[in-house]
Every structure is written in structure tokens, then in C-alpha cells.
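Try it yourself: sequence plus zinc ion, in.
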Amino acid sequence: MNLKLAIQKSGRLSEDSIKLLNDCGIGIKSGGNQLKAVSEHFPLEVYFLRDDDIPQYVEDAVAHIGIVGENVLFEKQKNVSIVESLGFGKCRLSIAVKKGDEYTGSQFLQGKKLATSYPVLTQQFLNKNEISAEIHEISGSVELAPGIGLADAVCDLVSSGSTLLMNGLKEAETILQSQAVLIKTASLEESHQKLLNQLVFRIRSVRKAQNNKYILLNAPNHSIDKIIALLPGMKSPTVLPLANEGWSSVHSVVSEDEFWEKIEALKDAGAQGILVVPIEKMIV
Ligand code: ATP
Ligand code: ZN
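Structure, out:
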């Protein structure tokens, strides 16, 4: 029986969710107007839903698994568990105040009115800081609330902060860093758990590959030791002799984070003709 996955129908998580599935070799076309799609290459059925509904569908096991932002997941407080972080859909849930206000810390909010679409997370933040403030739940365009006198401050999602600025607000304090996660229902029968394990294995391979680059370079033999010390590789680097006497070619894998730093060090150590290529899948 197919494993059922819920993803956002149309919005900020849709494209990346479908891309991840396709990178995992699970051919899925984007939702368009349809409610569900079945993969031809993997026993997976994909449901296209509003992101807010995904935790409930997964709790009820209508979908066995789902892709949703942590912001929505933690707000909804459903009985589901996180299987894997996915590294996309990054944003933060922040308190924002009027540009002219001086935010001196959470006590600034004492006795004030806060507009938000995240009443649960906002209340948790207030409780943690022992602040009492009035929460106005609104479902969209929260950033307009202070301008029309509905609230003194907001608690809303931010990525660049430009929407806040356009509405005369400034970010004051982050209450949650969020990204998309894969979630699963509380209990899965064995056949579904097996399929989920396969899917997670593929997701990890794809994500690892995205975080690493394959690097090829030439170097005179006398500098090979120095270069190898800089390139740990998956086991150890491959060294091949070049037709040109006294020279070798070195192949290895470097992580995206330390990439530029390594390149400089490699050049200094005598490396030439450095090629860096993307890796499609990485199984370790
Ligand atoms: P739906 O119609 O599915 O309810 P929506 O309008 O609630 O869609 P989107 O704006 O598409 O949701 O955002 C979906 C998710 O994408 C958010 O819950 C959050 O996890 C993530 N996200 C990433 N960046 C941002 C951002 N800059 N603003 C809002 N959400 C973001
Ligand atoms: Zn939504």
C-alpha cells in the first residue's frame, strides 16, 4: 500500500517540496488544481493541502507523513513527530514594534496589544517572560494592524524584514527560528515505516550531496602531502599520476561551508587547474 505524503498545495513550501521529491527520484508533477498525485517510481501518493491543515491530517493518519514549517507545526500542537529537518522554508517568527518605539526587551510588551496569526507561540513567549499582554489573533496581513490602531506590536513571520519596514515596523526580537520539516503520524504500520526509511535515506543522500562539492586539481608531486592534509575526502583523497612526469591529479570531496577557505589554502600549497563540480547523490 502506498505511503501518503501531504505537502503544501501552493505557497512558499510547494516548489521546494516537489523539487526534493524529484531529486529523490520520485517523479511528481506540481499540484495545479488537483488534490492528489501518485508517483510512478515510488509507492507514494502526494496530497496537496493548505499548510495549516497538514499537522491535523498527519495526526489523523489521513496522510502518514507531511512537509510543513516548524512555525505551523509548533503552533498547531498536534500529536506528530519530526523525522527530518529539510533545510528549506527558512524564516523566523519575530516580535516587531513601530519604527519609532524603543524596544528594551520583552517587558516593553507588558500591558500592550499584540496582533498575530500565531497565538499559541506568542502566548508561550509571553508566559516564559512573565509578561501579560493582550493577543489579537488575525489570519493575514498582520503587519497592517499597528498602522490602523488594532495593536501596538505584532508577532509575525519575517524573512528579509522588508514587509515590516514598508509598514512602519521594525523587528525587535526573534521568538522562533523555523525551517521545513518532514513529520510523521504517531504510529505507522511496518510496510509504511519501511517506505519512510527508504525515503529518509534518499533525502539524506540528496541533502548531503547539496552540501558538498567534488573537487579535482593538479599538483606537483612534492606538494601532494600538503594538499592531502587539506582534503580529507570521504575516506581519503584519490591521487592519480598525470601523463606529465612529476605531477598528479587529486580528487576529493569538500563541504560547501569550508569551500572558499580550502580553495585559498590549496592554491597556496601549489594546486593548479582546480575544478569544482556539483555532486548529485552522496551515499556514505
Ligand atoms: P496556505 O495557503 O497553504 O495556508 P500560507 O499563505 O499560509 O499558505 P505561505 O506564505 O506560502 O503560507 O508560507 C508557507 C510557509 O513557508 C510558512 O508557514 C513558513 O514555514 C515558510 N516561509 C518561509 N519564508 C517565509 C516568509 N518570508 N514569510 C512567510 N512564510 C515563510
Ligand atoms: Zn497557511
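One thing you can check immediately is this: Residues 208 and 282 are 6 Å apart (CA to CA).
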